[in-house]
Amino acid sequence: MKIAIPMNEMNMDAEVCVSFGRAPYFLIYDTEKKEVLFSANKAASAQGGAGIKAAQEIVDQNVQVLLTVRCGENAAEVFKAAEISVYKTTKVTAKGNIEAFEKGELAVMTHFHAGFHKKA
Fold it and tell me: Helix 50-60 to helix 73-81 angle, to the nearest 10 degrees?
């Protein structure tokens, strides 16, 4: 299984980014191979629709689970269509959240915000 986490830095011991769509990086963790991959979030600098574009990046990585602080409704719709489960993080670091997820300590995210859309 592959787990994705929005990150501020490319470090397992770094804080999880509070913004999904504008996170500078995504950590992709393969639970079977115990491999860690970091990728730059190409959507982070998008003028608009960053959440949807970032969600598509996660889908393209063949991820099954997203661990995040919060997530917008539009990105959540992309995850729902791709059958990616979204869980609310409770720990500060990526490593802590992966461990909590593997122990069954994280809850499925049920509240998605409307987004931070820029108004013209």
Answer: 20
